[in-house]
Amino acid sequence: MPEKERKRSSWIVNIVLAVICLVWLIPTLGLFISSFRPATEILQTGWWTVFPHRTWETVEQIQLPKDLDLRKPVEVNGRTYTNEELRAGIEIEDGRRLIWENPRERLLNVQERGWGMNTSFTLENYKSVLTGKEYEIAQPDGGVRLEKGSNLSRSFWNTLAVSIPGTVIPILIASFAAYAFAWMPFPGRKLIFVTMIALLVVPLQVALIPVLKDYTALGLNGSLLGIWLAHTAFGLPLITYFMYNYISQLPGEIFESAYLDGASNFTIFTRLVLPLSVPALASIGIFQFLWVWNDYLVALVFIGSQPDVQVLSMRIADLVGSRGSDWHLLTAAAFISMFMPLMVFFFLQKYFVRGLLGGSIKG
Amino acid sequence: MNKLAFRGFSIRLVFLSILVPTANLVLHGLIFLFFKHIDLHPLLAAALAVLWGVVGIYFVYLSLNWVVEQYPQHLRQKMLPFVFVGPAVLILGWLLVFPTLRTLYLSFLDAQSVNFVGLSNYVAVFTDRLLVTALRNNLLWVVFGATSCVALGLLIAILADRSSYERLAKTIIFMPMAISFVAAGVIWKFIYYYQPGDEQVGLLNAIVVALGGEPQAWTSLLQPWNNLFLIVILIWMQTGFAMVIFSAAIKGVPGELLEAARVDGAGEIRIFFQIIIPYIKGTILAVTTTIVVFTLKIFDVVMVMTGGQYDTEVVATQFYRQFFMYRNFGYGSTLAIVLLIAVIPIIIFNLRQFRRQGGV
């Protein structure tokens, strides 16, 4: 390829791509910055004001007489302004402006234009989201009871308790099945496997109503076991397919010689197949883990209103509904829920991409 | 003598074959009840639950395998595959295959699942205003969302391929893929945030105000355009997926082919449309179907952003509403079946693809 041409197309390409990347990054950046800003400031100034920008800074304050009538023009330093002008801010000489600090107190700001940035950051948001606020509740007998408000740390542990077995169980079950499909002849093998493929893209909504009925009858509703089983079922077709593709490509000779040496299929599976499949297990494992961690619908249906087992996604969705403009809480909570996926993403990106390439058709 | 021994042996086997699965069931049932009725510290409960889930599933297989190993060799060979496949088949049958059939059946019954109503639920889905809105919006999601994801993904993959910071760019575009739709909902709700007055802290409204416009309540009052503002979230999240796969496919286009075209004087744009796109056609099709399937089931975004209000309802949220709020199992099931019908062509495509590759 002619070197010159490549270079020329390159800088346009680089700039266009940089703009796209910036657009992609800004939403997350806004959330991240906001989660560290004090509650009062989030609603008063945009998060972008933490970067240097032109702004009005108060250089002087003027205390007008308290009994001043605001319906008449106000006189300041020999000039008169109306109340409306002072409310919106009015420019005076040499780039300064006058604006009310507090009209009721008759306190006036003189401001100058300059560079400024909002640098007040706090960890308070994370603290109150993670530990909950403490409330003092007066008892009828006159005493005071300390009550902790809702906090996210419990649902963080719940999410882990759902996600880890919700990943390990389906992967183990699927790997056993994949091994059987790949290396053990048995009647009905083809039919079962074809069914599995057909189930790959079946929307899980078609199963929810009947499964919920069964769960209610068995008391599995709102329990960890119930949600593990649900995630197992909804993940199984894809994981089995993914693991089958990998396990069936493993060299059969080693299984054969191990078998001739007297190893049972179970031993071959646990001692040979699983260790050899670690790359595939990591890829699909990350995929399933993120799937379960990020899931909202399955949790919403099968955990429902049980507060003891609620997971992060449900709690955050609740917060959005109940405290829709408490952005200091929402941003911190959202970032807590993103922490785990982002860690997985940045440190295990290679496996994640591989899982994605193979596992792009989840039902 | 021999016969007697054999009988004793087979009685023991039958006994074991019943005892071990039952013991498993009882054991895990007891653990289940333990967790249900005993209040532990959340952290301890989580740790114990993880231990139970992970170790438990292994011991299920271990014990079942042990039972099979007690059988004589020729029987063992026949039984073992079913121990390996059995749990998968049972779970899929119980929680996916059988429920699908039951949902199909429920879709022909009325709201309380008592009387047979024929096709009237299906008629309602295509005539009731709320349900039709859901269908229309889902169509919007598929048409605008999926198309934009594929087009943008392709564009960014090409750009990244020719840029000098490919890895970084791909990581940035791909990152939203890892987070949940609920968290993405919070992120974008903040961008679209509207508050009365001059000071706008939502990015979009701040830009509009800076350009001299009026701030808007983007996701609620701007009907029907509010749907597009929700679809942007899908595009933000899923473009990375398309891009990663296209990027891998573009790297597979043979260099000589591009070289030859350049020698013949073809411009980059012509090369893109006449060589690269035809070459990765199969990948484009696969990515498109994947994103379409994903988009058909879209639920979390709408639920978090608007709760389905302001005419933003989609099939999956309407399904949830019918099911949990109106308790109309007939409509709920029918909507689920409509989703299923929408993916049937893709199921057939997958099966064909599988047969072409040689099957099991």
Structure overview:
The complex is a heterodimer of chains A (363) and B (360). With 363 residues, chain A is an alpha+beta fold. Chain A has three domains: 3-34; 52-116; 153-358, MetI-like fold. Chain A is built from 15 helices and eight strands. Chain A has helices at residues 3-34, 39-42, 83-88, 124-131, 153-183, 189-199, 205-218, 224-247, 252-260, 265-276, 278-294, 297-302, 312-322, 327-347, 349-358; strands at 53-63, 74-76, 79-81, 90-91, 96-102, 107-116, 134-138, 144-148. In chain A, the strands form three sheets. Chain A has a four-stranded antiparallel β-sheet with strand order 1-6-5-4. In chain A, a hairpin with a 2-residue loop joins strand 2 and strand 3 (79-81). Chain A is elongated. The two termini of chain A are 44 Å apart. Residues 1-7 of chain A have low confidence and may be disordered. Chain B has 360 residues and is mostly helical. Chain B has two domains: 2-106, no CATH class; 127-356, MetI-like fold, CATH 1.10.3720.10. Helix content of chain B is 76%, strand content 0%. Chain B contains 15 helices and no strands. In chain B, helix 5 packs antiparallel against helix 6, helix 5 packs parallel to helix 9 and helix 5 (129-162) crosses helix 14. Chain B is globular and about 90 Å long. The two termini of chain B are 46 Å apart. The chains are: A alpha+beta (363), B mainly alpha (360). Chains A and B meet through helix 1, helix 5, helix 6, helix 7 and helix 8 of A and helix 1, helix 2, helix 3, helix 5 and helix 6 of B.
Topology record:
The complex is a heterodimer of chains A (363) and B (360).
Chain A: H1 3-34, H2 39-42, E1 53-63, E2 74-76, E3 79-81, H3 83-88, E4 90-91, E5 96-102, E6 107-116, H4 124-131, E7 134-138, E8 144-148, H5 153-183, H6 189-199, H7 205-218, H8 224-247, H9 252-260, H10 265-276, H11 278-294, H12 297-302, H13 312-322, H14 327-347, H15 349-358
Antiparallel strand pairs in A: 1-6, 2-3, 4-5, 5-6, 7-8
Helix pairs in contact in A: 4-14, 5-8, 5-11, 8-11, 11-15, 13-14
Chain B: H1 2-37, H2 42-69, H3 73-106, H4 120-125, H5 129-162, H6 166-174, H7 181-191, H8 203-210, H9 226-250, H10 255-263, H11 268-279, H12 281-296, H13 300-305, H14 315-325, H15 329-356
